[in-house]
Design brief:
This protein is an alpha/beta fold and about 300 residues long. Helix content is about 40%, strand content about 15%. It has twelve helices and ten strands.
């Protein structure tokens, strides 16, 4: 289970809008890891599921919002690898289910909807014990899947990369993916994270802790770029939508509007302002998240082609 080694392709982005600045831009297609456990979710879940099975757990419990890529991936992983799955969902139940939760339900996940106030207790031991009284024993995977085992999985994202790069970039939600790549790089290259949340600078502390929990080390070759959240998580404008649609038309690569679209928009902008210098090579990690597009389009009017 999950023992296979996944190597995803790297392709160069050709676009007149940025090529004239002399920066070589490449994208690693982690979105191709698995049709359902896509991108960084495959990496984050790999060692968690191996550990859960080794310890004899048959139930996985986790947390997420109603459109969560993580909830969707855990549900399918449970279906594929014979775990019962429980999703603690932030907010009230809304019927009919959105595409994310409809898929998760079809994969066998059971839901418990809780208020946003109660959701803030997701790290509280008393709250977790109450969940165990309700559901029985379970293996807990945190919101977004980020823990030391997730970091271990994400160190493998760059294992197959042999080309020389000056910078590596990825989008950030809870910080586990970038933490794994920072640890995997062992102080080499410059690593940039693009938080999807407004005022995402708080993630620096979380990311540093995830790295330390994994290997008891700290690194200085990374930072966060916090200017491309478009107003906050799941916020957007038509400039972003037009960018995503144009990028797909030129490169036949789909970006999502929550994470990868905002990151690539930011990278284009930074290239134009010479944040990345002529002659440098920039590697972008496509972390997946494409399942969320159907829900986004259903909510906002089928904007993404």
């Amino acid at each position: 289970m999950f023992s296979e080694t996944i190597s995803t392709p790297i392709v160069q982005i050709h676009d007149d809008a940025i090529e004239k600045y002399g920066v070589d831009l490449y994208i690693k297609r982690e979105d191709l890891t698995d049709p359902y456990i896509s991108g960084n979710k495959f990496r984050k879940l790999k060692y968690n599921l191996i550990h859960a099975r080794k310890k004899g757990f048959d139930t996985i419990l986790t947390f997420g919002g109603a459109y969560s890529n993580h909830i969707h991936a855990v549900a399918y992983a449970g279906f594929k690898y014979n775990f019962k799955t429980i999703g603690i969902i932030r907010g009230e139940e809304t019927l009919p289910l959105n595409p994310t939760l409809d898929d998760a339900s079809s994969f066998g996940m059971d839901f418990l909807y809780i208020s946003r106030t109660d959701y803030r207790n997701k790290h509280n031991p008393i709250f977790i014990n109450n969940l165990k009284e309700k559901f029985g024993d379970f293996y807990l995977i945190p919101e977004g899947g980020s823990n030391a085992l997730a970091v271990k999985g994400c160190t493998e994202i760059l294992d197959s990369v042999t080309q020389p790069f000056d910078h590596v970039c990825c989008a950030c939600g809870t910080g586990g993916t970038i933490a794994g790549m920072i640890a995997g790089l062992e102080g080499l290259k410059k690593k940039w994270g693009f938080p999807a949340l407004k005022n995402g600078g708080f993630l620096k502390k979380d990311i540093a802790k995830l790295i330390f929990d994994y290997n008891s080390k700290s690194y200085s070759n990374w930072d966060l770029v916090t200017d491309y959240h478009f107003g906050g998580y799941a916020k957007y404008n038509m400039q972003l939508i037009n960018f995503i649609n144009r990028f797909k038309e030129l490169n036949d690569i789909q970006l999502d509007p929550i994470y990868t679209g905002k990151m690539l928009f930011g990278i284009y902008d930074l290239i134009k302002t010479e944040f990345f210098k002529p002659g440098e090579k920039v590697l972008v990690i496509h972390t997946g998240g494409l399942q969320g597009i159907s829900g986004f389009n259903k909510r906002f009017g089928y904007l993404i082609r």
